[in-house]
Amino acid sequence: MEMEMRAREDIEMGQDVTPPLSPLSFALDDSLLLSHCSACFTPLPPHPHPPPLHPAILYCSPRCSNYDSALHFSSAEPHLLRLLRSRPSAYPHSGGTSDLRLALRFLQSHPSTCRPPPSGRIAGLLTNREKLAARLPPENPEADEIFAIIRDGARAMAAARRTRDGLDGEILTEDARLELEEEAALCLVLTNAVEVQDKSGRTLGVALYGRSFSWINHSCSPNACYRVSLLSEIETLPFSSEESPLRIVPYCAHDKETRLIESGFCSGNVLKTESQSRMCYGPRIIVRSIKRIKKGEEVTVAYTDVLRPKARRQSELWSRYCFICFCKRCGALPPSYVDHALEEISVVNAHSSCANNGFDKDTATEMLTEYIDDAIGDYLSVGDSQSCCEKLSHILTQGLLDEQLEFNEGTSPPTYWLHPLNHLSLNAYTTLASAYKTRANNLVALFSEPHGNLCEAFEMSRTGAAYSLLLAGATNHLFQFEPSLIASVANFWVNAGESLLDFARSSIWSEVCPVASLSSVAKYKCLKCSVTEKVIQICIRRHRKRETDPLHGQVQYSDFANVSNQLLNCVIDYTEKVWFFLIRGCHHLKVFKDPLAFSWFATTGYSDIWASHILSNGINVSSSSGTKENAFEYEAQEFGNSGRICLLQLGLHCLLYGSYLGSICFGEHSHLTCHIQNILKH
Ligand SMILES: [Zn+2]
Ligand SMILES: [Zn+2]
Ligand SMILES: [Zn+2]
Predict the structure, then answer these.
(1) Euclidean distance between CA atoms 157 and 79, whole angstroms
(2) What's the mean pLDDT when you consider all of the chain?
């Protein structure tokens, strides 16, 4: 039986669809067991004593301890931690033990529901056990990994529970019948649990929510999204969103079940009591509309990153949730423009090669993916940001030369180019923006020879800001075609705004080009648009009276198009004035005449234009060295105060546009708005 959730009334864009829902169960991440409270997930004060040697969990207060410690002990969580500490090889999986501990806690708090292990659902939630655990020789490595997690995890959980009960705690390797109950609970966790993150995006733990949330299906073009709030954050809200109603009802396509729902068996009211009575502790989840939803329409969220190409989304959904997505976006034929762009590569010189038909897009994609993953790995795992920047710039400007194909003498080999909106390109921009920023910060920190380092730091900071603007522009273009990208795009604009403001406010400027007065900017006033004040009011100042929906006390986004257009027009204006300056230090960026104008990629024949564009710009690849120091001073002075003020305004508008989009997805009190307040307070 397939469940879905439908809107019980018309829902405007940017509104809470559910009240904050309490979890059925939750577990803190392994890495935080000794530094955070296991009941409320808040950081603990630094330890006066070295941490205990045996695995233990900690609480911030007697209240938290009272609430959680009985469940901790009775669930066999300590036994599991001890067991796996002494025998790490029994569960060698990278995600840690939080999923297993969550499953143990769930088993303990829902004892009767799992015995005997039901085939389909526990507590109304889908386990997918048959599909997940009985998956025959896995066709892809990710599915294999999940199969191993289930098998090893259920064995370890069962052993921990036997130890708790004073029985033999050996981890059995045969007779899987004993672990069916644990297996079902773990499958349920893998299928339904949600990651809990702090304001900076760090994983705090995992949580499992009841039917009101877990019955919401996936779509690659969803009309809702969700955020998880810690209890401490909800308690500090100026007005209580506890009062907001549950605006969705369960629906089942089968006749029998529909009748059940109608007769009140699982009506919205029952779901509401479920959410209120179960547990008033732990991280809460809130679902929010990112599009207008009509009464009776199905409400969907994304279980995977919707900025990935279709093939990737499908393989992730299949390996983790065992379903093939038939959403409108996935079913579009020909593929939607966004899905086409996200995996498009083009080939140059294919005609000159005798192996004309040798252009194999799959092979090229594989090679490009490997190359880019390798470069990003240099940065993420080894911390070598310089090598990463060089490799990524190389592949973006030079393309991938197909040296394996034979070609006639005197002709150029075929070269594969990433579409500038290919998801690999987007990954590359993300990494470059971050890597250049890191390099700039490192250089400033080194700061031994005053001028030399500063010039380079200035360059790096500038190029990083340019890439973050390019990323925001590129994804904003895709967002025009696929409105569900709003959450990703919001983050990219905020990052761009932050990088641009960092760069514009950098102390390095004062060495060569002190700005006389930034007061006009400091007041966040823009002479061109009338909305900055309004947006600040919505996103940042909490106490003013706001234009709210009389029914649910929520901010209205009825003039969304007008506000975004005004902000974007200003972004375009300011970008025109500063882009030439931002890209001076980077050859790859010079191929983008305007980081916000991607619409010509939506036309046919873009590929030829793009290729000739890159080729003509790629000629001067050798870096123009010279007296760098003087060049830097000259450039900065030439750009001048007015240029720098444009940079500040651009940064501010990007930040506001990002926070405006973010307030739609995450509400006016989200991590994003706190973050923005911090940036602006500077
Ligand atoms: Zn606590
Ligand atoms: Zn889909
Ligand atoms: Zn403006």
Answers:
(1) 9
(2) 80
3-state secondary structure (DSSP) of residue 241: helix
The pLDDT assigned to 483 comes to 95
- Summarize the confidence of residues 35-53 as an average pLDDT: 79
Ligand closest to CA 313: 2
d(CA 168, CA 675): 51
User: Which among 271, 217, 294, 303 is positioned nearest to 19, based on CA atoms?
Assistant: 271
Cβ atoms of 275 and 210 within 8 Å: the answer is yes
Helix or strand run (H / E) with residue 48 = none
Residue 44 CB-half CA count within 13 A? 19
Residues in the chain, how many?
A: 682
pLDDT tens-place string over residues 572-608: 999 999 999 999 888 888 888 889 888 766 665 666 6
State which residues have CB under 5 angstroms from ligand 1, the bound ion.
37, 39-40, 60, 64
CB neighbour class for 86 (10 Å; exposed up to 12, middle 13-18, buried from 19): exposed
The gap between the terminal CA atoms of the chain, to the nearest Å, is: 54
Cβ count within 10 A of residue 263? 9
Specify the higher pLDDT residue, 60 or 627: 60
What is the pLDDT averaged over residues 641-648?
86
- Give Cβ neighbours of residue 360 (< 8 Å, ≥ 6 apart): none
> pLDDT by residue (tens digit) across 498-508?
999 989 888 77
CA pair distance 283, 36, nearest whole angstrom: 14
pTM of the predicted protein model: 0.87
Cα(601) to centroid(ligand 3), Å: 27
Which ligand is located closest to the Cα atom of residue 41?
Answer: 1
Q: How many CB atoms lie within 10 A of CB 44?
A: 14
Decide: helix, strand or coil at residue 210. Answer: coil
- Residue 510's CB is within 10 A of a number of other CB atoms, namely 9
Q: What is the pLDDT of residue 397?
A: 82
| Stretch among 468-472, 518-522, 633-637, 653-657 having the lowest mean pLDDT | 518-522
Q: At residue 97, what are phi and psi to the nearest 5 degrees?
A: -100, 5
Residues 26 and 280: beta-carbon distance below 8 Å: no
> Cα(318) to centroid of ligand 2, in Å?
11
- With 60 as the cut, is the pLDDT of residue 249 above it? yes
Query: What are the φ/ψ torsions at residue 320 (nearest 5 degrees)?
Result: -90, -40
Q: Say whether 218 sits in a helix, a strand or coil.
A: strand
Arithmetic mean of pLDDT, 35-43:
91
Ranges of each domain in the chain: 4-17+210-225+234-298, 23-192, 341-542+554-613+629-681
For residue 192, how far is its CA from the centre of ligand 3 (angstroms)? Answer: 43
Q: What is the mean pLDDT of residues 518-523?
A: 50
How far does the centroid of ligand 1 lie from the alpha carbon of residue 107, in Å? 22
Residue 538: which residues within 8 A CB-CB, separation 6 or more? 546, 555, 660, 663, 668
CB 589 within 8 A of CB 428: no
CA-closest candidate to residue 647, choices 560, 540, 521, 541: 521
- Tens-place pLDDT, residues 402-438: 665 555 555 666 778 888 899 999 999 999 999 999 9
DSSP structural state of residue 414 = P
Ligand 1 centroid to residue 59 C-alpha, Å: 5
CA 54 to chain centre: 35
Is the pLDDT at 635 greater than 90? The verdict is no
Question: What is the DSSP track for 78-99?
Answer: HHHHHHHHH-GGGS--TT-SHH
Ligand 3 center to 587 CA (angstroms) = 30
Q: Which amino acid is at 557?
A: Y
pLDDT of residue 624: 44
List the beta strands (DSSP E) in 237-348.
248-252, 284-289, 300-301, 345-348
